[in-house]
Design a protein that fits this description.
Length: 293
């Protein structure tokens, strides 16, 4: 199992769509270069921010191929492979061509509301199926179940290829318990842009970010400063972006960040149903904040 470095800023990249709803591959290429030029550390392809729930199998393959080709091995790549059907996800992990990828990000099962033992057994199956390191993803606001700190630590200790967790529980206390009890090399990654600075302060290694789609340089500079314990610089950048980040999530993700990317002339605003674009009040507020910024 090769070591994977997940320190710094990973970006959960959006999937740009044309106005007719089809995948905008030119917009995706532009986004990849925007992020690489912004000095982020790695890219997460087909995460939930990429609206993977609404992409067909062929479209997912198109997105993967496009990012791999445009990246030209410049940055490490993480592939999102998650769901709530354990056997299907394990089958997909075995079947998909992951040669261009460095790790897999897999969200804790949603809707089913498994017990902690169910979550553990789910990831045990995925661990056995995967040749790549696995990043757990805990996001109870979307999955309707929290993966507790002791389940995370148990998985980290029992399976060598489970190397990190993307934590979006919102509970710093839960994250501190993971950091205190985890194996030495296991990494805790922030899954919440506005909590990234405090998470790094208590021992996190970085973030898988949404806001960095739009502001890759400033956000990754903030993360780098925090990791170097340059708190003054990190705080300045953190507080300069905090209101924009709030607004990006005010009426649904990734609708907000796509609005920002459109203003920056990277890609369009189209999202797929059941998601819709943010309401006019949010758009106006976001535009005002971006102009000031």
């Amino acid at each position: 199992m090769s070591k994977v470095n997940l320190k710094g800023t990973g970006v959960a990249i959006v999937t740009p769509f044309k106005k007719n709803g089809s995948v905008d591959l030119e917009g995706l290429k532009k986004l990849v270069n925007h992020l690489i030029n912004g000095k982020v550390d790695y890219l997460v392809v087909l995460g939930t921010t990429g609206e993977t729930a609404t992409l067909s199998k062929d479209e997912k393959q198109q997105v993967m191929d496009c990012v791999v080709k445009e990246n030209k091995k410049r940055l490490p790549l993480v592939l999102g492979v998650g769901g709530n059907n354990t056997e299907e996800i394990a089958h997909l992990i075995k079947k998909v061509d992951t040669r261009a990828f460095d790790a897999i990000l897999s969200v804790s099962p949603y809707y089913n509301k498994p017990s902690q033992e169910g979550i553990y057994q789910h990831y045990k199956v995925l661990s056995k199926a995967s040749k790549l390191p696995i990043i757990l993803y805990n996001v109870p606001g979307r999955t309707a179940s929290n993966m507790t700190w002791d389940t995370t630590v148990r998985l980290a200790k029992d399976f060598k290829n489970i190397v990190a967790v993307k934590e979006a529980s919102g509970s710093i206390e839960q994250m501190m318990k993971i950091i205190k009890h985890k194996p030495k090399d296991f990494m805790l990654i922030s899954g919440d842009d506005n909590l990234t600075l405090p998470i790094i302060a208590v021992g996190g290694v970085g973030v898988i970010s949404v806001v960095a789609n739009a502001y890759p340089k400033d956000f990754s500079d903030m993360v780098r400063a925090a990791l170097k314990h340059d708190l003054e610089k990190a705080k300045k950048l953190h507080y300069s972006l905090i209101d924009i980040t709030d607004q990006l999530f005010a009426d649904g993700n990734p609708g907000g960040v796509k609005q920002a990317l459109s203003t920056l002339k990277v890609c369009g605003t189209t999202v797929r149903l059941p998601l819709v674009e943010p309401n006019d009040k949010v758009k106006q507020k976001l535009n005002e904040l971006m102009k000031k910024y």
